[in-house]
Amino acid sequence: MKQIIALGGGGFSMEPNNPLIDTYILNQSRKTNPKICFIATASGDSENYISRFYEFFEKQPCQPSHLSLFSPSTRDLESFLLEKDIIYVGGGNTKNLLALWKEWGLDTILRKAWEQGIILAGISAGSICWFEEGVTDSFGEGLEPLKCLGFIKGSNCPHYDGELDRRPSYQRLIASNKIKPGFATDDGVAIHFIDQEIKKIVSSRPNAKAYQLYYDEKVIEIELETNYLGS
Question: Which of 5, 71, 112, 170 to pair with 211, CA 20 to 30 A apart?
Answer without folding.
Answer: 112
